[in-house]
């Protein structure tokens, strides 16, 4: 339905008509060009001109065309099925077929009158054509959120959910609202009677261990309806198709509902990602044996970094450094004095921290020569005892022109916002300048152009460009310098102000990490965000390719080949992303995988290798008991029906007979200017064209 509305009074149309008449009269009343033609011709051309001028004048009044539209929205019936594996395991093959047939019949019957939407939820929520009961998790809370987001404001007549109530992931649906006024009915599946079962409830372990270390594994075990039964917990190392027994612990079950925790100590004998298995020997009449076994993975790192704290003399700064490094668990720390240290002892260390060395008493030239010879990264900590002349010769990052004055300056830190050698926390950057001052040697400071300055000196109230903490690299060996002593005061301040030592420890450990990390000079690098994935996670790769100037490029194609334990291969091609490459290969089944990425740069083949592991997810096997109590609470909260599968036909009849479920009529009004009508413009153009043709044809202008 269309209506024409005027933004000005309608009597203004009189002026529009008068304008049209005036134009026609003015143009044709005294025109003698057409005097020898029939009068009807002149009247026709005058009429066309008058109509065009009238309509154009009306359009200047900006009339609006209002269109009223009516739309009928049919009711929507949402049928959601829990697609987790626990639903399938609770039904026999015949019962499963009969149930799915009944559920599809319910959908078909309701679709004769309503619009039916079929939803599946488990690991994720999705619209489906057919339900498949094979998901390894059940997240009903996510389904409730989906209802609220996708069906808010829609004409939903009823929501039907078929589930056993065994929720093992996500939020409790009782604390979520569907956002619908429509009733939520539940088809209760599964069995609420506890089954005879022995299971590995949970396994707790470190994700990282160090080669040669021992680590603890805690195993939670539960048993239902098995009093008097015996079993054993076996711990095995799975490697290259070998199943090596590490330990067997007897299990004696003495109650109907039994729970126990066992601890096993495992020695990390091989580096890399190691696969272990805890397994309970089967007991007769268990409902399932799937939950008797649990695999877990530990990344074994090939040794800790060995750090030498070499000092001129005992100092409280050394204790702070030692505590900061040992807190990271990936460092071994030795503290030695220069007086009883030999250069021959350097072979076993990966990093050397030199506290107030070289000094006038201990120039340690032989030690410095050996450090350079073995290319060991180092950190210099200057102080009052440092021999600045020898210090300037021992490194190339910083030169201190001391001019003979031995009086130190008290300096606080000014963070350099342009620093980018490693990431620092917001808390560290914000609080760095509030720390207690260090005692820094007096003199003129000149940093190498290649040095990266983390913090500058603030002497009293004067901001300087003298570096206080800096770092750099020469001949692929990294060096750091803290030009001051008194770090122990940082830790005291940190403890008093923040209640911890984390900021101090963060700074010192990051300096050590930077110094000990070897520069990656590879032109082609491929990485995964982590080495351990679950079956429910998508696996992604990122690749970087550098030219001879070490500039990122992504013009050559990059290929990826993945191999599983059975030597099967899967091939992929990377996509470009910015200046690098990215690839999402989706989910992979449980197992260990190796990969090789290849590309070609300037005719030279480039490769990058790696490994990753996919862990199984056994959430559905942890509980075989339905939770109908939760479902009854949900029905009471949302207002609906609690039914069993044999009552689905009754539910269909009730919904079809419900007169409150009916279509909704929506009306909408659309307004637009009349001048936007293309057909009106075409008519005016046609009228003017006809008039112009007649005038020209009969001798007019």
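Q: What amino acid sequence fits the structure above?
A:
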């Amino acid at each position: 339905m269309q209506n024409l509305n005027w933004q000005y009074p309608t009597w203004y149309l009189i002026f529009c008509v008068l304008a049209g008449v005036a134009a026609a009269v003015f143009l044709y009343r005294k025109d003698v060009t057409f005097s020898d033609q029939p009068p009807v011709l002149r009247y026709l051309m005058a009429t066309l001109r008058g109509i065009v001028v009238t309509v154009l004048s009306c359009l200047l009044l900006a009339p609006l065309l209002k269109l009223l539209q009516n739309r009928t929205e049919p009711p929507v019936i949402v049928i959601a099925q829990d697609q987790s594996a626990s639903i399938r395991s609770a039904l026999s093959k015949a019962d499963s077929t009969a149930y799915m047939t009944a559920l599809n019949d319910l959908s078909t019957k309701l679709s004769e009158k309503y619009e039916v939407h079929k939803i599946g939820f488990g690991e994720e929520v999705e619209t489906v054509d057919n339900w498949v009961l094979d998901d390894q998790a059940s997240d009903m809370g996510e389904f409730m959120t989906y209802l609220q987001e996708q069906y808010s404001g829609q004409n939903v007549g009823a929501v039907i959910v078929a589930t056993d109530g065994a929720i093992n992931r996500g939020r409790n649906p009782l604390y979520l609202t569907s956002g619908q006024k429509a009733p939520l009915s539940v088809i209760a599946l599964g069995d609420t009677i506890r089954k005879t079962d022995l299971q590995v409830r949970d396994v707790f372990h470190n994700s990282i261990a160090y080669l040669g270390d021992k680590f603890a594994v805690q195993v939670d075990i539960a048993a239902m309806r098995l009093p008097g039964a015996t079993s054993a917990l076996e711990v095995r190392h799975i490697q290259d198709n070998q199943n090596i027994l590490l330990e067997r612990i007897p299990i004696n079950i003495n109650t109907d509902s039994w729970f126990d925790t066992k601890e096993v100590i495992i020695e990390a004998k091989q580096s890399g990602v190691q696969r272990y298995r805890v397994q309970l020997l089967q007991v007769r009449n268990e409902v399932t044996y799937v939950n008797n076994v649990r695999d877990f993975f530990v990344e074994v790192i090939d040794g800790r970094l060995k750090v030498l704290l070499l000092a001129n003399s005992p100092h409280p700064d050394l204790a702070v450094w030692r505590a900061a490094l040992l807190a990271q668990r990936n460092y071994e720390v030795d503290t030695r004095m220069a007086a009883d240290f030999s250069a021959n002892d350097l072979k076993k260390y990966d990093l050397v921290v030199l506290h107030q060395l070289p000094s006038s008493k201990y120039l340690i030239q032989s030690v410095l020569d050996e450090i350079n010879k073995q290319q060991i990264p180092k950190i210099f900590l200057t102080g009052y005892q440092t021999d600045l002349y020898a210090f300037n010769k021992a490194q190339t990052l910083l030169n201190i022109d001391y001019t003979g004055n031995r009086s130190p300056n008290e300096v606080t830190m000014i963070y350099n916002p342009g620093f980018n050698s490693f990431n620092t926390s917001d808390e560290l950057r914000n609080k760095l300048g509030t720390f207690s001052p260090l005692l820094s040697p007096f003199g003129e400071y000149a940093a190498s152009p290649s040095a990266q300055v983390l913090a500058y000196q603030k002497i009293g109230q004067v901001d300087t460009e003298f570096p206080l903490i800096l770092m750099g690299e020469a001949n692929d060996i990294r060096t750091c310098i803290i030009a001051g002593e008194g770090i122990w005061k940082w830790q005291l301040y940190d403890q008093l102000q923040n209640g911890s030592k984390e900021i101090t420890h963060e700074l010192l450990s990051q300096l050590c990490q930077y110094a000990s990390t070897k520069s990656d000079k590879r032109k082609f690098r491929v990485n995964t965000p982590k080495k351990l994935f679950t079956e429910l996670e998508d696996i992604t790769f990122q690749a970087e390719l550098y030219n001879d100037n070490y500039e990122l490029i992504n013009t050559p194609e990059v290929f990826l080949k993945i191999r599983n334990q059975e030597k099967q291969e899967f091939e992929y091609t990377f996509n470009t992303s910015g200046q690098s490459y990215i690839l999402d290969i989706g989910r992979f089944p449980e197992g260990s995988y190796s990969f090789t990425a290849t590309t070609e740069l300037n005719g030279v083949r480039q490769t990058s290798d790696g490994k990753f592991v996919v862990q199984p997810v056994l959430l559905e096997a942890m509980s075989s008991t339905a939770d109908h109590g939760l479902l009854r609470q949900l029905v009471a909260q949302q207002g609906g029906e609690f039914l069993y599968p044999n009552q689905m036909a009754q539910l269909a009849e009730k919904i079809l007979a419900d007169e409150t479920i009916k279509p909704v009529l929506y009306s909408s009004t659309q307004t637009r200017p009349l001048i936007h009508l293309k057909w009106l413009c075409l008519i005016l153009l046609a009228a003017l064209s006809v008039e112009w043709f007649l005038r020209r044809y009969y001798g007019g202008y």
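Q: And what stands out in the fold?
A: DSSP finds 14 helices and 38 strands in the chain.
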